[in-house]
Amino acid sequence: MLKIWGRLSSLNVQKVMLAVRELALSHELVEVGGKFGGLDTPEYGKLNPNRRVPVIDDGGFVLWESNAIVRYLAARYGSGTLWPTDPCVRGDADRWMDWQTTEWQPAMVPAFLQLIRTPEGERNQAVIDKSVKQINACAQLLDAALQERDYVSGAQFTMGDVALVCSTHRWLGLPIARPATPALSAWYRRVMMRPATAGVLTLPLS
């Protein structure tokens, strides 16, 4: 059985869990990180020397890094679904996964830490403002890409949507002003209607 180490409050763990649920894979979630602790043990260090979540063990194959895990699971268990058979569609999904992890997620981290993890009286408004400007610009870029598309790579729900919807969910959960993004909002509603999101993408953020 697939074994997963992580906590559902982690955006990166949410990606993996959403992929697992989309693929209907039998699995066990071991809660570690955050309030659960456990990342500093020798045993966990052998699984992931970075001591971060998530990590999976699939029949003895241990893998860390969330997007690598999602790609692996999609390729092994989701050919034709999360893993598009058309190389162009797959490349497009791949591109958006990389964009999520190199552009949108890093832009969001400062605002998330300030607004969700920092007491109100200790927050740095300049840091928040800069982060919000960046993440809203990313949202508008994604909104433009979703014009006249059901999903980020076209008509098919793929691994690219898995990564992006987790960041979108976090963006929408932040107590900030957001620009109008009608295509992004319609896509988000469409994805959130999928049964796999239940219990994975929930509010409030923590």
UniProtKB/TrEMBL annotation:
PROSITE patterns: GST_CTER (PS50405), GST_NTER (PS50404). InterPro entries: Glutathione-S-Trfase_C-like, Glutathione-S-Trfase_C_sf, Glutathione_S-Trfase, Glutathione_S-Trfase_N, GST_C, Thioredoxin-like_sf. One of its GO terms (molecular function) is transferase activity. Signal peptide: none annotated. Keywords: Transferase. It comes from the Bacteria. Residues 1-81 form the GST N-terminal domain. Residues 86-206 form the GST C-terminal domain. Pfam families: GST_C, GST_N. Gene3D superfamilies: 1.20.1050.10, Glutaredoxin. Belongs to the GST superfamily. PANTHER family: DISULFIDE-BOND OXIDOREDUCTASE YFCG (PTHR44051:SF19), GLUTATHIONE S-TRANSFERASE-RELATED (PTHR44051). This is Glutathione S-transferase.
